[in-house]
Amino acid sequence: MVVRRGLVFAVLVLAAGSMATVWWLAAPDRTAAAGGTATSMPPPTVQIDPTSPVRILTAWDERRASAWAAGDLRGLRDLYVAGSGPAREDVRRLKAYLDRDLRVEDLRMQVLALSVVQRDERSMVLEVTERLAGGSAVGPVGRRSLPAGQTTTRTVRLVLHRGTWLVDEVSPTGPRPARR
Fold first, then answer.
1. Could you tell me the fold of the domain covering 2-26+49-172?
2. What mean pLDDT comes out for the span 111-128?
């Protein structure tokens, strides 16, 4: 049971972190609004390679957050490899929210580090350090902010299926031995 909760939390953290990364990369320059000097040059455009692991993970997180906000169990399940443990746990968790007449909106994750452990044209394994940065549970009695999560490091395995990256496995990553 603890492992399942950990997996669901890991997936939530993963989603929120990726969304926060996209928000940060797409945020406009706020120098002038903060009292700084604005220049006549437009801010640089950030181009993210659509095949980059960061972009793939961010796109996945965006689809997941949309499924949670819409209460879409099927859409959520479709983000995972059929029958995977993380899929069952994520769907079970969303169903529990729906059973209490709650939606989860505005999930935001903060990705602190991402490294590619393995990658080929059909799969990739990522080590992701992140935390839940925000979100809200919304129901008949109002909106409640989700508490910020602890920083966690997880190993996430994604596979490419019919042109779409799906999450297959999520597992905790233990501490790394010190370098000598």
1. Nuclear Transport Factor 2; Chain: A, (3.10.450)
2. 94
